[in-house]
Amino acid sequence: MSATKATGGLYALLTEFESPAQFMHGCERVRDAGFKHWDAHSPFPVHGMDDAMGIRGTRLPWLVLVGGLSGLSLGVLMQWWMNAVDYPYMISGKPMFGLPAAVPVIFELTVLLSAFACFFGMWGLNGMPRLSHPLLAHDRFRRASQDRFYIVIEARDPRFETEKTRAFLASLGGSVVDEVRESVEG
Questions:
Q1: What is the pTM of this model?
Q2: What fold does the segment set 5-56+133-185 form as a domain?
Q3: Where are the domains of the chain?
Q4: What gap in Å lies between CA 52 and CA 91, rounded to an integer?
């Protein structure tokens, strides 16, 4: 940390585990305790973590579906308007609007708007862009990508009370319970 950084308010409490088994058990206990704003960090994927954390499915597929249907509708409407209404051009008695000729544009708009919905939906659902995160400035958390497992309970959680949460995290069997502070540029 540079000399210009000051320590802000409490962001979260974290506990550190050395084995995946302890880590999974700790996640199950945090889920069962009713915490809503917490996360688990590990150096590699741990099988069954979604169930242990009680993670529901995401809304992203619905956003992509809406984007795709919008692209499909826009493609059909746009080509019908251009060919049959705005600039009708009669050629050899062919219909003003033919669906087979419109399929490539419809497909491309469907894919394009689905991709936009996916990209911007992920940004929105993940709270991006966030240029810095308090955990990344925490010295102990640097081992999360090497050989340690962490459970972090955020201070904004409705059930969060500093001392009770600290005691709860200590009861999970982790080696350390530590505070994570908001960092603000000074």
A1: 0.71
A2: Alpha-Beta Plaits (3.30.70)
A3: 5-56+133-185, 60-125
A4: 64
